[in-house]
Amino acid sequence: MNGVVALGRHAGPFLDEPVHVVHVDPDAVLDDLAALHEVVAEQLALQPSIVVVYPDRLGDAPARALSTVRTALGAAPVLWHATRLPQLAADVLVTLAGALHGPLGGVAEVAAALPVLESQLVHLTWLPTVSGLTEPSPSVVQHARSALPGASWLVTSWPDPAVRRLTADDPPPLPRPAQPIGVALADLDGERRWVVDLVGPQLPDAAGVEVDPPADSARWWGAKRVTQVVLYPRSIEALAQALRPHIDPGPCAWCRRWVGSAECPWCALPRSGAPRQEVAGGTSDGVVFAGAEGTGGAAGGEEAVTR
Q: What is the DSSP letter of 206?
């Protein structure tokens, strides 16, 4: 057991070795504190601490419910992380989090590494229309063009969240990998040729894996046809080594719990009792991808709009 619980997301076959992450349906627990209490208590009986990862689109309800349950269990060692990543990328995130439990040292270290790890996952999503897209927000011109037949759009996260028209002669910009990379694909009746033609040549050594499209793809993206791609690290050893400079494990001087960051996530105070200091290697550039340097795609693209 690795102490990672995915609320509303699932682990997937993104690595060479299978990773088990407990999945919990948010509809079954967020309106039923007794059910959530049972799930958390059951997991704490199997490992000393847990971290719950959930989509931030669920709002404040998970944090409020988990805080109540943690208090009811006697300040139990329960952490949580709300991710802004879309579905496929969030599934990759929880899978990597589960695999990092051993190499990084434990739940506290994994929880501290999640913000950096999340920032390193690159996701691209093809849509036939942006009329139902809310984040990043399309421009007025893009909305108008989206109503015309034959439109093809790409939502990208690197170097900044953006919406761009997809054309055969304008590949999306991609960062240069600093370690072995995987390409995850989930296709819901969408367009996948661009993955071969525009992504593949920029990442010739990447390993590909295809999974079923998440059940909530159409609702999330506001379109009935969706093709999602995520670039992610495949070597857990290399990833753990790259993440270690970004975490700061040790006991909290206030609550005595073992934590992975300079600020204690339980008592929200500087762990050492002194003013908070930045962890060495504060920038996340170069963890998975080599800073801002790209593989060759155009950084702007026709009418690219960034959030």
A: P
Distance separating alpha carbons of residues 205 and 42, to the nearest angstrom? 42
Distance CA 3, CA 215 (A): 25
The residue type of 92 is: V
- Of the three residues 66, 85, 119, the one that is the final residue of a domain is 119
Range of the domain at 53: 4-119
Is residue 10 located within the same domain as residue 104?
Answer: yes
The total of other beta-carbon atoms located within 10 Å of residue 38's CB is: 13
Please give the sequence-ordered ranges of beta strands (E in DSSP) within the chain, or none if there are none. 4-7, 22-24, 50-55, 78-83, 122-127, 153-156, 162-165, 175-177, 181-188, 207-211, 226-233, 250-251, 258-259, 289-294, 305-306
Across the strands, what pairs with 24? 7
The total of structural domains in the chain comes to 2
pLDDT tens-digit series, residues 290-304: 755 566 555 454 455
What is the three-class DSSP state of 69?
A: helix
What's the whole-model pTM score? Answer: 0.90
Amino acid at 189: D
Of 119, 147, 174, which one is at a domain's C-terminal end?
Answer: 119
**177 within some domain:** yes
pLDDT tens string 241-275: 999 999 989 999 888 888 998 888 888 888 875 44
User: Hey, what are 124's tokens?
Assistant: 């691209």
Q: Are 21 and 95 in contact (CB under 8 A)?
A: yes
List, in order, residues 6 or more apart from 34 with CB less than 8 Å away: none
Tell me which amino acid residue 297 is.
G
- Lookup: tokens for 69: 């349950």
Whether 77 is in a domain gets the answer yes
Between CA 204 and CA 278 the distance in angstroms is 37
